[in-house]
Design goal:
The complex is a heterodimer of chains A (240) and B (121). Chain A has 2 helices and 12 strands; from the N terminus they run αβββββββββαβββ. By secondary structure, chain A is of the alpha+beta class. Chain A is globular and about 60 Å long. In chain B, the strands form 2 sheets. In chain B, strands 1-2-5 form a 3-stranded antiparallel β-sheet, with no helix packed on it. In chain B, strands 4-3-6 form a 3-stranded antiparallel β-sheet, with no helix packed on it. In chain B, a hairpin with a 4-residue loop joins strand 1 (48-51) and strand 2 (56-65). Chain B is an alpha+beta fold and 121 residues long. Chain B has 1 helix and 6 strands. In chain B, 29% of the residues are buried. Chain B folds into 2 domains: 1-38; 48-119, no CATH class. Classes of the chains: A alpha+beta (240), B alpha+beta (121). The interface between A and B is large, with 55 and 55 residues.
Chain lengths: 240, 121
């Protein structure tokens, strides 16, 4: 090898090292960029609108009218009384979310929002149970409801969500307006992942059969007032 | 001279290859890992409410923001499939609640997507 050849080879090797060094610097810069804290959260807000939508269905079933379908009523009623107990059934079709919630998504928070139009004088606990049998808004009645007609069934222990409501100090929801605290995160997670079928929920008074009648009334889809429609708010992350 | 050209080309190629390999290796391990491990000020869900004085969502309120997110910047975008609007606001120092006013009203439909991103603190 001549002296000139050695010089060219050394230059080439030096250039190679220099390129490697430049890339290393570039990599260090990208590391700095990824240290920024970023907290993403995607939320799908399902609203029961318009009044004719099938994206949400809701109905009251009334012990006092055990064979009457009330799916077209403009209000939803929960009541605890000696022989006129009322329950609510409602279901949101999650596939209306766009973009669709991936089956692998982690649901951070899912909340039912119902607009209270009348509340009892005392604080009442309301329990949310996932329905496991399908039902139809236009035909569901007290006698045909998925959970049967036995009071306080299913038992409180099998509820998956709860909130309380009443014009009393210390209650979660003391005023008219949208409820807070009606979390259904675990249920929505199972609906999204496909581990259970979305047949919606039933909400009843925690203690049915009260000697003093206790009534809570909510706006239904059919009321058609946009600011009072039932909502399901689902916050999730696609990558946990 | 004829023999030194391929040596130079090889050396350059080696240099690029080394550089590319280093870049790929670093990018794969660091960026791939950071997608999962990117620091977040919280991993819990936060209640979100659409505010609609009429028939459109004009602002979005996020509540129960942990104190660890205090000082972050909250970006929100609402999209009903036809109209999209966004806004930004600083989260109070102690967390809590923050309302983002959107750049335009987004008419309420059966489903409205709201994307929230907290950057920082």
């Amino acid at each position: 090898m001549t002296g000139r050849q050695r010089l060219l080879r050394m230059t080439a090797l030096a250039l190679g090292v220099a390129l490697g060094a430049a890339v290393t610097v570039g990599s260090a810069a990208s590391l700095t960029m990824t240290s920024q804290a970023i907290t993403p959260l995607r939320t799908c807000v399902l609203t029961a609108t318009p009044a004719t939508t099938t994206a949400e269905v809701d109905a009251t079933v009334a012990q006092g009218s055990p064979t009457t379908a009330m799916g077209t009523a403009t209000s939803l009623t929960i009541q605890s009384a000696t022989s006129t107990n009322d329950r609510i059934y409602l279901r949101f079709i999650l596939t209306n979310c766009s973009p669709a919630i991936p089956a692998s998504a982690t649901i951070r928070l899912a909340t039912l929002r119902l607009y209270v139009t009348a509340r009892p004088a005392v604080c009442r606990t309301l329990d949310i149970f996932p329905a496991t049998v399908s039902w139809v808004e236009s035909s569901i009645t007290w006698n045909s409801q998925p959970f049967g007609t036995t009071l306080n069934n299913p038992p409180t222990g099998s509820r998956t969500g709860t909130f309380n409501l009443g014009n009393a100090a210390g209650c979660q929801n003391t005023a008219l307006g949208y409820t807070i605290g009606a979390g259904v995160t675990a249920d929505v997670q199972s609906y999204v992942s496909g581990s259970s079928t979305n047949d919606g929920w039933m909400i009843r008074d925690d203690t049915e059969g009260s000697a003093t009648t206790r009534t809570e009334t909510f706006a239904s889809k059919e009321l058609g007032t946009l600011a009072e429609e039932p909502q399901l708010v689902i916050s999730y992350v696609a990558v946990p | 001279m004829w023999r030194t050209v391929p040596v130079l080309a090889f050396a350059l190629g080696a240099g690029v290859t080394i550089g590319a390999a280093a870049s790929t290796a670093v990018s794969t391990s660091r960026i791939g890992a950071s997608t999962i491990a990117t620091p977040r000020c919280t991993s819990v869900g936060m209640p979100l409410v659409q505010n609609l004085p009429g028939t459109s969502v004009t602002s979005v309120t996020v509540s129960s923001i942990p104190s660890g997110c205090g000082g972050a910047t909250l970006y929100a975008t609402a999209n009903n499939g036809a109209t999209a609007a966004s806004g930004t606001i600083a989260v109070p120092a102690g967390g809590g609640s923050a309302t983002v006013t959107l750049s335009a009203g987004v008419p309420v439909s059966t489903a409205v997507q709201v994307d929230v991103v907290l950057t920082g603190p």
